[in-house]
Amino acid sequence: MKFILNQIQQHSSNMPDAGDTGKFYVVVGVISILFLGIAAYLVSLDVKLKKLENEKN
Question: Is the residue at 45 inside a domain?
C-alpha cells in the first residue's frame, strides 16, 4: 500500500498546477460566458412572456 501511495505522490508532484498553465483562467472564462449567456436568454424570455401577458389583458 505504501508503494502505491508513494507512486501517486511522486506522479502528482511532477504534474504542473492548473493555474501555472493558464487552464484555470480558460475554464473560469468559459463558465462565465456560459453563465452570462444563460442569464441573457432568461431575461429575454422573461421580457417576451411579460409582453404576451400584457397583450392578453
Answer: yes
Angle at 23 between CA 20 and CA 24, to 5 degrees: 85
> Residue 10 falls within a domain, yes or no?
no
What was the pLDDT predicted at 49?
Answer: 95
Domain that holds residue 28: 17-56
Instruction: Provide the number of structural domains found in the chain.
Output: 1
Angle CA(48)–CA(49)–CA(50) in degrees, nearest 5? Answer: 90
* Helices of type H across the chain: 2-14, 18-21, 23-56
CA atoms within 13 A on the CB side of 38: 6
pTM flag (> 0.70) = no
User: From CA 35, how far away is CA 53, in angstroms rounded?
Assistant: 27
